[in-house]
Target: Oligopeptide ABC transporter ATP-binding protein
Amino acid sequence: MLELEAVSKTYRLGAFGTREVTAVRDVDLTVERGEVVSLIGESGSGKTTIGRMVLGLAAPTKGQIRFDGVPVTGRRGRALKGYHRQVQGVFQDPFSTFNPVFKADRVFALVRDGFFPDVPTTRWRERVEAALHGVRLEPADVLDKYPHQLSGGQLQRMLIARALLLDIRLLVADEIISMLDASTRIDVLNLLGELKAAGLAVLFVTHDLALGTYISDRTVILRAGEVVEAGPTQEVFADPRHEYTRNLLAAVPHLHSRWDEPVK
Ligand SMILES: Nc1ncnc2c1ncn2[C@@H]1O[C@H](COP(=O)(O)OP(=O)(O)OP(=O)(O)O)[C@@H](O)[C@H]1O
Model:
């Protein structure tokens, strides 16, 4: 379904664009229907750049990104909108996505204005309520409220509900769990699991190996813009081939041991 082939992204820096930073280098990656693929790497490893390219918000310097065999790059206007009906992103900080001046459910109104202007108001309301139920939110708890009246978990779910209104097939979830507290994290992860069971594909971007293991079918480990390891999640974790992956694994806190004890 989604396919990245030898994708690189170089940013030019400085007033005259004389300095270059290669954020992503020669990355191959696929995501199939109903599959969750974790993209794991430390800060600065190029994860967000990949997510933005997949969403058509940035263009690769080299290589190809295809969705159902059709290039993503270069889509503009109506073609990009058509793509965004099928592929949407949810990002780390839900608070920054909402404008504090407007009620939070404005995000749904914007979807209606942009994609479904002909749907009558009552029908639209039903669709919004169904999408909210889909993410385990009670419409009365979240509709007609300002962002500051809602929790981070509620806002994050509303953003997932917004994506679901579009009948998407691929969700790019960029660190969506990082800012949530522990119990909400598990709820949102379980929600992603349910959506996956319903056929949704997820590119799950995280720096957190433990979250990646919990949810994904396949794992891609990124270091300084390059894929250092990729494979079925259980295999990557059971037998990490690359030293970088082993180091990342060693850095995951072990629940059964005290933090001041050396981990065996
Ligand atoms: N718009 C930009 N202009 C110049 N350099 C950029 C730009 N965006 C990202 N970079 C650089 O590209 C590299 C990869 O950044 P990216 O944000 O993709 O990494 P990341 O793995 O998502 O990191 P984090 O987890 O901290 O968000 C970094 O060196 C970053 O400084």
User: Anything to note?
Assistant: The mean pLDDT is 87. The chain is about 40% helix and 25% strand. Residues 182-197 form the longest helix (16 residues).
